[in-house]
Amino acid sequence: ISALAAPPASGYSMYAMRVPNGDKVPGVTALGHLDPVLAGPMNEFGMDMIDADFHWTRDFCMKDSDGDGQTNGQELGDPCCEFVYRKNPVVRWSEGVSHPGDASFKSDPKLWEGIVC
């Protein structure tokens, strides 16, 4: 019964850990959902995450789920697609990340300017 009483957002943290900086996108607790706080229907990033079997793959990283011209990796601080959940949780930056499922939020391209992958 106590599991049923847990707040809904508690389950989303396990998904947020599977992508770089998934817990650092400002104002977002449900990264893969149209409502970034309360969840509900999935956004394109969430659908792409399902397609990637909940793994941060190179293809998932290089996708532009929200169609804003930035790859998911660029938006989440992993422009070179180096992050591997539990094995290599390294990112290039954590401040300035943006929402890869919402085209109205973009990261500053200067963050990856000069990075050679």
Summing up helix and strand content along with how strands pair, one would put the structural category as: mainly alpha
Oligomer: single chain
In one word, what is the shape? globular
- Residue share in β-strands: 5-15%
Distance between the termini: 48 Å
Which percent range fits the helix content?
Answer: 10-25%
Radius of gyration over alpha carbons? 14 Å
* Contiguous uncertain segments of 5+ residues: 1-11
Integer average pLDDT: 89
Number of strands: 2
Protein name: Temptin Cys/Cys disulfide domain-containing protein
Pfam families: Temptin_C
Organism: Phytophthora sojae (strain P6497)
Domain Temptin Cys/Cys disulfide: 10-102
Write the layout of secondary structure elements.
Blueprint: H1 13-16, E1 33-35, E2 39-42, H2 44-51, H3 58-62, H4 72-75
Antiparallel strand pairs: 1-2
Question: Would you summarize the structure shown here?
Answer:
It is built from four helices and two strands, in the order H-E-E-H-H-H.
How would you describe this protein?
This protein is globular. It starts with 12 loop residues before the first helix and ends in a 42-residue tail after the last helix. The chain has 117 residues and is mainly alpha-helical. The N terminus is likely disordered. Strand 1 and strand 2 form a beta hairpin. 34% of the residues are buried. The protein has one domain. Strands 1-2 form a two-stranded antiparallel sheet. Pfam families: Temptin_C. It comes from Phytophthora sojae (strain P6497). This is Temptin Cys/Cys disulfide domain-containing protein.
